[in-house]
Amino acid sequence: MSSVPDPKPVAAADAPAEAAAPMHFIRQIVAADVQQGRNGGRVHTRFPPEPNGYLHIGHAKAICIDFGMAKEFGGLCNLRMDDTNPSKEEVEYVDSIQEDVRWLGFDWFGDVRYASDYFGACYEYAEALIQAGKAFVCDLTAEQMREHRGTLTVPGKDSPFRERPVAENLDLFRRMRAGEFADGVRTLRAKIDMNSPNIHMRDPVIYRGLRASHHRTGEAWLIYPMYDYAHPIEDALEGITHSLCTLEFEIHRPLYDWVLDQIPEFFAEAQKKWSALTLTEPARPRQYEFARLAITYTIMSKRKLLELVKSNLVEGWDDPRMPTLSGMRRRGYTPEAIRAFCEKVGVTKYNSVTDFALLEHCLREDLNQRALRYMAVLDPIKVVITNYPEGQVDELDAVNNPADPAAGTRQVPFSRELYVERADFMENPPKKFFRLAPGREVRLRWGYLITCTEAVKDAAGNITELRCTYDPATRGGNAPDGRKVQGTIHWVSAAQALDATVRLYDRLFRVEEPGATDGVDFKTEMNPDSLKILTAKVEPALANAKPGVPVQFERTGYFCADKASAPGRLLFNRTVTLRDSWIKAASKA
Ligand code: ATP
Ligand code: MG
């Protein structure tokens, strides 16, 4: 355990005023608890991921709530790997989880904890429950147990082993631990109530025999506690005050409380050993449930995300199309944007699906503030400025970020040969087309006004080059005679431009709720055109673009250098386009 000094409990008056943060029911509960001095006025939460995959945007919501509530009320938040399930956990996942939580901007109290740290305590408590006549060893098979359990409308039936004497239960449980019985032959069950309307209270299994090797405890344990039993114990031992989780656990809450309320003295004692805090009074955690985050066009199940990785349908957990935090980071999402999104989604008690456009809206709002602007031509066609001297290079001043005056300016080279976007020229344009066309004048961003004089074609009739003239009196983009030019296009100077591979992404799934239709494999709902790779021409200032630093390519979107990008072989991922469909949708509504 760590030797972090005990924090002072925070009085309500000391808690930071969160004027900007909207009130939600969890914030309300925590504030009231602090005010009433419950658990000595402490706030201590935990984030308990199962290390069987990478964290995704849904976890970000839980992280923002768990760590966020602790931070807001001057409390602590533990990071605890839920490794009660021995077969699946992997070290790679444990590492990635820590990296992602830190990247999101949070830090946990003391060392990373593991559910497996508490296997000993869970076992001791199980023996205590047996001794108190509150748990029994059951020999029913899984199949028989299902039959006994009953249904929502039919009460359950008592197990024939329910009244086993304490000594026999204890002996059998110890032999289970020693691995004397085959997996699945015997279980330890809580003795609660087979008539309970809540099926989870019908003598639930709390331990099962499993002769599996565990990534941390090896072969030390041949029995493993069930999550519903272990979780409240872990919470109590760590001194957690508010155990925040998603809605599907609501129906498990009576069991959570049952586990803690059988032998409260046990926890008062065990907390001294485990909590890493000197508690002035025993902690009694309470569970509160909030709605899971779901987003349109997005899969949020680790099992399904793993399937995409395993079947090579994506390039790995951090594929920029994945909803994983590592994928989003590589794509160019910022922690600030994700946190703002989580705050906007809010904390409620009803499940709903959030529009992906809201996430992109939060992203654009953040990137607009921080991304420096550059010019990059994604689908280049050459322009020759016929009246510009050969060999001459002009350095033009360009504003780095109109949204941030402190970002300053840079110089952009201009010369006789340029590239512009192929789509910015039309041979026979409609009236409202304000870009390049024969005889039409357009503004080059930060540059001059140019007029197209000719489109050069190859034998097949494809346009290969545009010829234009520039007006030397229009440096900076304005005509001294005040003539109006509507269109402004971006460009790069051919001689100085750098080649860059650019990856444009579209949503990974074609349907709004992938995986929601019975009998349809979610993998068949993938968008076949989710990745387009281009070779672009970018301005020389991007030569040293750093992975993780967002940039805007004027008119084509926000981008970010990929982790594989390097000087000489630039590789950019498009984070998001510039057009915000959320604002449009919101203003229509
Ligand atoms: P999966 O079903 O994909 O395996 P999980 O809920 O089992 O997800 P955990 O690793 O157990 O994944 O989750 C850790 C914490 O994150 C839990 O408290 C869980 O409630 C929360 N969480 C997981 N998914 C979401 C989501 N989509 N929205 C909000 N919280 C989530
Ligand atoms: Mg889980």
Walkthrough of the structure:
By secondary structure, the chain is of the alpha/beta class. It has a domain at 375-588: Ribosomal Protein L25, Chain P, CATH 2.40.240.10. It is built from 14 helices and 25 strands. It has helices at 25-36, 57-72, 91-103, 119-131, 142-149, 166-177, 227-237, 253-262, 264-274, 302-310, 325-331, 335-345, 356-370, 581-588; strands spanning 44-47, 76-81, 113-114, 135-138, 187-190, 205-209, 223-225, 242-246, 286-290, 372-374, 376-377, 380-385, 394-399, 409-414, 417-421, 441-444, 449-457, 463-470, 488-489, 491-493, 498-505, 531-538, 550-553, 557-561, 570-576. It has a seven-stranded mixed beta sheet with strand order 10-23-24-25-21-22-11, with helices on one face. The protein has a seven-stranded mixed beta sheet with strand order 19-16-17-18-12-15-20, with no helix packed on it. The longest helix has 16 residues, at 57-72. It is elongated, with a radius of gyration of 31 Å. Residues 1-19 have low confidence and may be disordered. Residues 48-50, 58-59, 61-62, 82, 245-246, 292-293, 300-302 line the site of adenosine-5'-triphosphate.
Structural class: alpha/beta
Strand order across the biggest sheet? 10-23-24-25-21-22-11
Q: Kindly state the number of beta strands.
A: 25
User: What characterizes the major β-sheet?
Assistant: 7 strands, mixed
Query: Shape, please?
Result: elongated
CATH arch. level architecture of the domain at 375-588 = Beta Barrel
Return the CATH class of the domain at 375-588.
Answer: Mainly Beta
